[in-house]
Amino acid sequence: MNIRRQDIRKKIIFIFYISRLLFLGGGAEGFFQPSLKLKQSVFVEKKERKYCSRMYLKSRLSWNVEIPAESVDPEGLMLQKAILVHLLDTFAVKKCSRDLGYFLAVTTLDHIGKGVVRHHSGAILFPVEFSCITFKMFTGEVLEGTAHKIQKHGVFVKCGPAEKIYLSHQKMPDFEYIPGDNPIFRNQKSGKQIEKGTVVKFMVLAERYEENEKDFRAVVSLEGDYLGPLS
């Protein structure tokens, strides 16, 4: 029980931190409502999105949350707590979607609808509306990431939750591959180098959602002004 309470406390602290970090400063711009509905098991999504920065999105979603009958309590506060905990667990498992990118954190639970009893299990299905933060890369966007794998023909970079970002040696002007126990790419003109752990500024050339893996892949480049290793 104490471990469960600690987990809930950590999730709440994380939600509070992210919401303050990204949204209390304002500046979100652009607003649209795509008429897209996704149906996967108990999920039904209706999306409203705001751009707060290019890669971080503030989204409003509608999902169905299933609560076991034993978790239902006559006191409304305990029921809300159970719904929130199950929503956070479901949110963590879902990982990402094609349209919104990676799911990072739930910021607010905005509305809880009327529950419907599922006859085969006795569980109760509650429609909920909530706001969350997601991460998505866009073609033409300039981002920063950390090199985590160096190979002869290119570098794999991690940016936020995205790890399958590939920087080909053909998109690294003037960089030469140098093999060894700790292989690197070194720029023949500036002397700067890219090794494991180096922070790199790059431009996204293309990104693709892999349905089978439920993950994104991206191809990036260092061709452009002010792109390349930062450390």
Structure description:
With 231 residues, the protein is α+β, with helices and mostly antiparallel strands. Helix content is 18%, strand content 48%. It contains two helices and 18 strands. The strands form four sheets. Strands 1, 4, 5, 6, 7, 8 and 9 form a seven-stranded antiparallel beta sheet that branches. Strands 10-11-12-17-16 form a five-stranded mixed β-barrel. The longest helix is centred in the N-terminal third of the chain and has 22 residues, at 2-23. The chain is elongated and about 70 Å long. It starts with a helix and ends with a strand.
Shape: elongated
Q: Largest sheet at a glance? A: 7 strands, antiparallel
The sequence of SSEs as H and E is: HEEEEEHEEEEEEEEEEEEE
Query: Structural class per helix/strand content?
Result: alpha+beta
**How many runs of DSSP E, i.e. beta strands?**
18
> Compute the gyration radius: what is it?
22 Å
Which percent range fits the helix content? 10-25%
The mean pLDDT is: 79
Count of DSSP-assigned helices: 2
Short descriptors:
231 residues, alpha+beta, seven-stranded antiparallel sheet, 18 strands, elongated
